[in-house]
Amino acid sequence: MIPNTMMAWVLNSPGVLQLKEVEVPRIREDQVLIEIDRACICNGSDPGIFHGHEAYQTPLIFGHEASGRIVKKGKRVGGFELGQRVCWWFEAGAFAQYQAVTPGNTAMFQVPVNLTLDEAPVMELVLAACRALMEVRPEKGRRTLSICGLGPSGLVLVQYARALGYEHIIGWDLYETRRNLALLLGADEVYDPARMADGQLQDIPESDVGVLMMGDDCLPGEPTVTAFMRTIRTGGLVVSYGHPEGGCRFSPYVFQARNLWMKGPVNDMDVIRRRGEEVIGMVTDGRIKIEPLITHRVDFENFLPAFENVLEHPEEQIKVILKWRDQQ
Q1: Does 253 reside within a domain?
Q2: Is 70 inside any structural domain?
Q3: What sign does the dihedral 72-75-77-81 (CA atoms) show?
Q4: In a shared domain, residues 91 and 60
Q5: Model confidence over 206-258: pLDDT tens digits?
Q6: Which segments of the chain are extended strands (E)?
Q7: Claim to verify: residue 259 and residue 280 sit in the same structural domain
Q8: Residues 93, 95, 96, 97, CA torsion sign
Q9: What is the pTM of this model?
């Protein structure tokens, strides 16, 4: 039986999160009501939304990475049934016991049967990250790839790129634990941008494609993105995926002199649904692994200190899984 109220983490205003009792969402005819099994902190977007973002008006129920079971559906919803475990990209409001989701506005999939409850919410991140390369497939003149930023999204992209057939994959990240994990998940080489001496860039093989997945640039000297662009071949492609709170600085001269071009990730929902089926298959057969990304498991009731730790010590965790205390 669906209750009238539920517990949820509400962002009352920028920087102010509160666990409170709210009404269970009333779904429209084109929506489903999902009982949330698990959720997880988004290392990339959640900090920016927490501090205040133009795309989000407060108050709002925080969080967007989750999975769960359909317990109610509207008359106009097709393709999904009561009781199905589903994951989706993208709709906010996940850090609650129930969430209303609109399948027509999202890319919703049945959770692969081999995934555990803890792994399932990370599928939102997997689908999001893979958008960077969904329409950038390996082909003649596009065989090698560099990824700047080996957080959760970058580590997923290493695996997706390998599964797509990229022949050489290079990763950049400040943190040794992430660099080492990238090597285990399929990267060929990894570099620490903070330790690159003058001239060392010349020793890094040029890539056909570079993907920007980093957060705020905290290093002195030449912007990290400019240095990264120096390692993309002349005429190569740069995919801008991440959206750091402080924006992204790079040299227009280097970008222009190397005749680079830039594009964003796929946002066309039809493409995401179509390519997403392929991604689901890669997760199902093990080419994209989720369990190695999970570093912490926390009760929803203890979310706030866990989130504060993500903000203050991003090097200490990759994916933080959340569940309500009375759940299995």
Answers
A1: yes
A2: yes
A3: positive
A4: yes
A5: 999 999 998 888 888 899 999 999 999 999 999 999 878 888 899 999 999 99
A6: 5-13, 16-23, 32-40, 60-61, 65-73, 85-89, 98-101, 107-110, 144-148, 168-172, 189-191, 207-212, 232-240, 261-263, 294-299, 319-323
A7: no
A8: positive
A9: 0.96
